[in-house]
């Protein structure tokens, strides 16, 4: 009971702080007579831009101070095969959540691949250290989350958010993260056996590994961006739209966006990239709407 009271008090405090920040962090809408400005404001979908920019700067500072150096040491300390095994292992741990969302979205074929990948990599892949399912059986990894599931069910993304530590998001994706956390078997293992450090360690390792793999691409992205915040915002929304449609891997899109022809070194504006829908999921989205 005391634990629940502590959680409740923390939630109330967080809600109070969020209310104050929301009141102070709203962007001023442009003059209705300025059609171009109004269109840009609506397309950005970022009415809380002042608050979001503040948290973006906080997160960027933490990245420069902690995450980026750790990622650099990680790259130096581990050879590529070891980093591949780390990535394969944390992906395998996430497989049950992916399976749930495959099923929620009615994607039987992908759910079958996910279940088979988990069985193969957990056994032949020695607990997921090696992605045998992809190497030997031609079943590549794919990701799903409840934010994507909500989109398939017809939920709108809501306004753009940049959350402390978590980074770019929106109400739909933030809610999805909470559901994924509850669906994750490791959450319950940690709660029942009082070993919540397992999940915390998993998230930390996953974050450092992802940051390490994108050190150069993010640096190039920042160097070539006129407004780094706006670029990240646009990039995140494109990533999510692409993921919802079962398109490219977000890291592949990130690499594509950092090519010289996409983000020139002279700081020209980044062109809009329109993700092409995959028919299967695009049909589901059309039906939901």
UniProtKB/TrEMBL annotation:
It comes from the Bacteria. One of its GO terms (biological process) is intermembrane phospholipid transfer. It comes from Dongia mobilis. Residues 1-23 form the signal peptide. Keywords: Lipoprotein, Signal. InterPro entries: MlaA (IPR007428). Belongs to the MlaA family. Pfam families: MlaA. The lineage of its organism: Bacteria, Pseudomonadati, Pseudomonadota, Alphaproteobacteria, Rhodospirillales. This is Phospholipid-binding lipoprotein MlaA. GO terms for cellular component: membrane.
